[in-house]
Amino acid sequence: MQTLLFALGLVLFLLGLLTGLVNGAVRNPRMGLASHLQGMTNGPFLIIAGLLWPYLNLPHGWQVVTVVLLAYGTYANWLATQLAAIWGGGRRFAPAAAGDHVARPGRERVIDFLLASLAPAMIAATALLIAGVLL
Length: 135
Description:
Layout: H1 2-21, H2 29-52, H3 60-87, H4 95-98, H5 105-134
Helix pairs in contact: 1-2, 1-3, 2-3, 3-5
C-alpha cells in the first residue's frame, strides 16, 4: 500500500505540474490554477500518507478502503477542477474560482458530482488514517 500511495502521489504531482503549464489554454484560467494547486498539494498529501502507512494499525480490508478513498478523493479533486477549467464550469461548488463561467448543464453535473463526492471520501479517509494511528 505504501508504494502504491507513493506512486499515486508522484503521478498526481506530475499532473499538477503539467496542468500549470497549460493554464493559459483553458477556458477559465482561475479554475486552471485551482486544478494546478490540487495536483501540487494532493500529490504530496498522498506521499505523506504513504510515509505514515507503517504506523497505521488497520485491518487489511480497511487499509484497502482507505487507499481507495484517498485515491478517489485526491484525483477527483484534480479532475473536477481541471474539467471546470477546460469547460468553463464549476460555479455551484467553486464560485470564487468559476467566476462568471458556466458550462453546459451535463458538464456542470459531472463537475458537481466529482466535487460533492470527493469531500465525504476525503473526510472518511482522513478519519480512517487518524483511527489507524491512534489504535
